[in-house]
Design goal:
It is a single chain. By secondary structure, the chain is of the alpha/beta class. It is built from 13 helices and 16 strands. The protein has an 8-stranded mixed beta sheet with strand order 3-4-2-1-7-9-10-8, sandwiched between helices. Helix 3 packs antiparallel against helix 4. The radius of gyration is 23 Å and the shape is globular.
Length: about 425
């Protein structure tokens, strides 16, 4: 049994859905769990719906209508029969979402986000399962919320592994009695009170890892629009090259530092059971891709580059210029955890603590306001964070030439730099 995961780009339109169907048809009769993300830019569009709903600006239903139009147009290209049951299934998902939007959001932004944005995965999996069946690929739809149990940490649900493992095994066994291909959603889970949670942005990779762990899968394949794991984003580094084989450790490090090919939480569950992970191109499914596993490592080591834009560097010091010691750091970290801030780089001295983060327009202003009650706070925004794994001196010189370095940190294998891009 294997786990396949298809991201939003792989199901962005009717042609892409047909391509996924073609890939799955090549594995006819094989027992599979197929994890599907929301189609194309649906998650982004639904995030706009939530923001509008939460601000009560009166546009949320109009924005949702655009999402609905996209999905119905795509279905018209896939299903010639306007009476196909898929139309009712999809319409019901939109009706339930509209009902939610007609009420005022009552339980905070993160709760509201999960209840609405999760519709993207429900829509995509319903459509794809129906098209697979029409294309003679035996498949059955499963609700991931019946499989993955989380706590009530909305937008970043923490998995209850004991309950989740039992539920996944039970649901999968029942599903495979109907068809060899189990189709379910990435990104979402459910609480004990039957509320929907999400597992963090781009969390579908993590979902694939969770199913693989619980079902002792032979392997996991993540299908992407790139030939494999590259040593840099081609948008920033024109000479990017594919990494043929990398270790679990390097994959974890690259994901943690911000490489977008794999979700940071993906690797650890499959590493615990030595399940190999393959990153392959859905555009060229016959190509080898990148293999990730225990002791998988290409020699010599190739430097890997991660570039994060829209960063903010916050410097925190005591108002009386006393030391920033353990008590102060404890208060700072507790505050960040309560607000939901993720740290990309941190560094402390005797009198200050500096931290680099994504410039979240909702969370960062809240953090700075809260910090200023007890500390002196300075910050710079519109910065970039460069991370190099397996660096050489020449790579550092190339990256930092002509740029103002605000913060630098190096270990044996990894170097990080917060820089201000030169004015054009």
């Amino acid at each position: 049994m294997r786990v396949f995961k298809f991201g939003g780009a792989s199901v962005k339109d009717a042609a892409a859905v047909r391509n996924v169907t073609s890939i799955l048809s090549e594995h006819s009769g094989e027992q599979l769990v197929v994890i599907i993300s929301a189609m194309g830019k649906t998650t982004n569009a639904l995030e706009e719906v939530v923001q509008s709903w939460y601000k009560r600006d009166g546009r949320c239903l109009e924005l949702l209508s655009g999402v609905k139009e996209f999905h119905f147009q795509l279905m018209e290209e896939l299903f010639a029969d306007a009476k196909h049951p898929i139309y009712d299934l999809v319409n019901n998902i939109f009706v339930e979402t509209e009902w939610a939007l007609e009420e005022d959001p009552m339980r905070g932004y993160d709760f509201s986000y999960d209840q609405v944005v999760s519709a993207g995965e429900l829509l995509s999996t319903r459509i794809i399962e129906a098209f697979l069946e029409m294309s003679f690929v035996q498949a059955t739809w499963v609700d991931a919320r019946d499989c993955i149990r989380t706590d009530n940490t909305y937008r970043e649900g923490r998995i209850d592994w004991a309950v989740t493992e039992k539920q996944i095994i039970d649901v999968a066994k029942a599903a495979w009695k109907k068809a060899p291909v189990l189709v379910t959603q990435g990104f979402i889970g459910g609480t004990s009170e039957n509320y929907t949670t999400t597992l963090g942005r781009e969390g579908s990779d993590y979902t694939a890892s969770v199913f693989a762990y619980c079902l002792n899968a032979e392997s996991v394949v993540i299908w992407k629009d790139v030939p494999g794991v590259l040593n840099a984003d081609p948008k920033f580094f024109k000479d990017a090259q594919k990494l043929e084989r990398i270790s679990y450790l390097d994959a974890i490090e690259l994901a943690y530092y911000g490489a977008s090919v794999i979700h940071p939480k993906t690797i650890k569950p499959i590493e615990n059971k030595s399940i190999p992970l393959y990153v392959k191109s859905f555009l060229n499914p016959g190509q080898q891709g990148t293999a990730i596993g225990r002791d998988f490592q290409t020699k010599p080591l190739i430097p890997s580059f991660i570039f994060k834009t829209n960063q903010v560097l916050v410097s925190i010091s005591a108002k009386d210029f006393s030391f920033i010691a353990e008590e102060s750091l404890s208060r700072i970290f507790t505050l960040m955890a309560d607000i939901g801030i993720k740290i990309n780089l941190m560094q402390n001295s005797a009198i200050s603590f500096s931290v680099c983060m994504d410039n979240d327009p909702l969370r960062i202003p809240e953090l700075i306001t809260a910090l200023r009650k007890d500390f002196k706070v300075l910050y710079n925004d519109d910065l970039q964070l460069y991370t190099v794994r397996h660096y050489y001196p020449s790579t550092i010189e190339m990256l930092t030439e002509g740029r103002e370095v605000l913060l630098e940190q190096r270990s044996r294998h990894t170097a990080q730099f917060v820089v201000r891009k030169p004015e054009e």
